[in-house]
Amino acid sequence: MLGALHHGQARLMFFFLGLVVTFVFIRISVRLIRAGVRWWPGNFTPGGTHIHHVVFGAVFMMVGGVTGIAVPDEAQGLRLAAAALLGVGAALVLDEFALILHLRDVYWSKDGRLSVDAVFLAIGMTGLLLLGARPLGYDDVLGYNDVLGESVPVRVALLLGNLGFAIVALLKGKVWTGLLGLLVPLLPQIGALRLARPRSPWARWHYPDGSRKLRRAERREHRIRRPLIQAKIRVQEFISGRHDEV
What is the pLDDT along the chain (246 residues), one digit of tens a residue? Predict the structure, then answer.
């Protein structure tokens, strides 16, 4: 199987496997710790200090990243191991992304769901890269595809246009659409053209209080967005564990 992949794809696959396997393992571990299972090792607390797994993740990312850069190109085994270690570290860091953002332990709180979103997003984007997606169609810009002929300005304009649509989608509060749209054609355009979420920066700038657009956005948030978010939370908590509502 590895023989059918070029070196970049093989390293990406090992990174992906390290990311997914480590996320599943660490979530099983923290759920067992939370349940108070006696036979499972508890938190790592040397000298009474709780060492969060984000610390180990940062070390693994550093070691994996530097190793991947430093080893010669022909040492493919080491480069694959480094990519896998980088994936392990990324999973440990992203699993406590909310802790880094809030600078306090919010792992099982409602705010801690942001960590699960970050991991799911990383898995989704890495999976799309493995399937052949390329950020903002840069293959066209570099001339790897002949769809646009030899016109470099057209290629660059396409890339910048896709980036602009993705930024607008993010400003409209459509985080998943904006970020995944960096890899999936037409997704950022759809996100940019659709109505913004009520509390997004775009809505604050362009939807005055009492305006028709703001009322439409609030109705859509209540009727469509909230049920979708609840469904997403149920799926995520089936995998990652239930977070406290208060």
Answer: 455 456 678 999 999 999 999 999 999 999 999 888 889 888 888 888 889 999 999 999 999 999 999 998 888 899 999 999 999 999 999 999 999 999 888 888 888 888 999 999 999 999 988 887 777 655 554 444 555 455 667 777 777 888 898 899 999 999 888 888 888 878 888 999 999 999 899 999 999 988 999 999 999 988 888 888 888 888 888 888 888 765
Cα-based torsion angle of the residue sequence 6, 12, 14, 18 in order, rounded to the nearest 10 degrees: 180
8 A C-beta contact, residue 117 and residue 180: no
Which pTM does this prediction carry?
0.81
Q: Which residue has the tokens 């349940």?
A: 35
Residue type present at position 242:
R
Which long-range contacts does 125-130 make (Cβ < 8 Å, 24+ apart)?
125/179, 125/180, 125/182, 125/183, 126/12, 126/15, 126/16, 126/19, 127/16, 128/180, 128/183, 128/184, 129/12, 129/183, 130/9, 130/12, 130/13, 130/16
CA angle 103, 107, 113 (to 5 degrees): 105
Question: Tokens 């550093």 — which residue?
Answer: 62
